[in-house]
Amino acid sequence: MSDDRIQLPSYLDHLPDVAEYFAEIDKRKVVLSIEHLFREFDSPDSPDGKLVALSDITFKVRRNEFISVIGPSGCGKSTLIRVVAGLEDPSAGIVAVDGIPVTGPGADRGMVFQNYTLFPWLTVRKNVLFGPKMKGTRDDKATKAADEWLKLVGLTDFADLYPAQLSGGMKQRVAIARALANDPRILLMDEPFGALDAQTRASMQAHLLRIWAAAGVTVLFITHDLDEAIYLSDRIVVLGARPGRILEVIEVPVSRPRSPDQFLSGHFLATKKRLEELIHRRDNAEPDSDGELMHV
Amino acid sequence: MSAQFKGVISSVPPSEPLARILGVRKPLDAQARFWIGILAFVLPFLAWCAVSYVPFIWHPQVLVVDAGDTRIPGENSYIAVGDRVDLDVVILRNRELDSAHARRVSGDRVNPIYLQAPHAVARAMYTAFTTAPERDGDAWLHESLLQSCKVIFWGFFWSALFGLPLGVLCGTFPFFARLFEPFIDFVRYMPAPVFGALALTVLGLNDAPKITIIFIGTFFQMVLIVSNTTRAVEVSLLHAAQTLGANKRQLVWNVVVPGAVPGLYRDMRILIGWAWTYLVVAELIGEKSGLSAWLYQQQRYRHFDNVYAAIVIIGLVGLITDQFLALLGRYLFPWETGQTGLARALRAMRRALPVARLART
Fold this sequence. Notes:
Chain A contains nine helices and ten strands. Chain A is of the alpha/beta class.
């Protein structure tokens, strides 16, 4: 019986440049630290009246790292990022930025939402200027910086238009520029490309890698798209559902700089296979890095 | 038809006019919209002309010019000159008069609602402004109109001065909503005219009780409507602003208020209309004043052409101001309608004005 399957390397086997890359990341300062995060809701349906959305989430994000959080629906990824943003409070555990625990939303954690949430009464430029204006930055300085950010996201010609006149991809680029104009410690992105069509999504992913490289910002990225997670990130935090807990943290073995032709490389496919196993809970689970069998 | 596909055989036949305009949920093309819109006003006007000028359409009454021989007794001998009497009654009286070989009742055929012919109303629209009032000391039409506008303005002004901030507060902070809204909801049901006698006693025989009625009629509704519109600002915009570093004060002034303002502008336009509906009641308590008083006088002197003229004038004033406010709204809030071209053009014109240039230096 011929075996048509491609022989894939293990997603744990790192090429030397990848291993070096991760060694370098691990030397950097920790920007975001999540320790034993629990989040539960009151729920009249469950037996004990509580629904646990997140259970014992612990991981670190280092400077200029790109971390994706992925998982099946209902695994609490949106809840996680909203707790980090400070829009929701944890039930237990610590979320700390630069060592300081987070108590509410703030400009140090910029956020890009799935549904753009641009201010419709402000032009593109004024949207980007919103954060600096709240901080009280001088107009001429802020406008110069805003124009730089608009140039980076490629929207200089659209600076005086209103959001209603832009396409979905453009609106999301404005949202990214608006968050970055505040010079945040970490950029939080909650399924930012979920509302876009496949072609726009592909070009936005390339844009985002470019912006990330140019701005040198740390990114925490929520997605449900496996290809997107592998293409963009350094590390992928895989959450399981009900309750939301970390199944595994995968170091993406694909070398940087990333490009779309890596989609069919061995390491890419091996990682994707592992993600599918974890998320769709296939029965032929491979052992993880500690040698333990994952019970799926 | 576009030149590029002229001559191509199509499966879709050219549409019939009736099918074109009567499709279910099918939008009208620009031409149809224009002409049907014109028809919307022309048809009622034609009906008015028909009723006024065509003698056999809807003239069930007679405006008696000659009462006939009133010495002849009969059931219907009460008919006098200037009366409006049913045609049947006139016919019966004329039978009575005929049997006595006396002079018949005669007059003009009229409609029962005193509706004047269009030309009479048009003439009255001019003469109403130029004719002196019947009695010395009575107000002219333009004086009455101004008086009414004054009462509406002040009533609405005080309503908005307190109602807008309170409504925005209730829409922003659930604390204030819970504190104020239940009671306001309760008072809302008390009809404003009920407070008329009270206002008169407390405030005296001047404009104050009238303004108070307008205020009571609009304030409580305004708070609830403004509160709802403020609450309608998407909460995700607030979340976004928080992640951009906005503090509580900045959230209210830079997100809630600008987000709510287009809706509030729309609400104010509607509420001004409500204020007008309280006008008649307000003007008739205490010392009658304004348009209602003027109309009442015209009715007493039976100048119904003036009455209809005033009604048309009020309608036109309302229409013109509302359309002006709508246009202003499109200039102020270009992102709502996508009419940024218009807004840009108007802003450019404003900048070109010497006054604006002076203000900038």
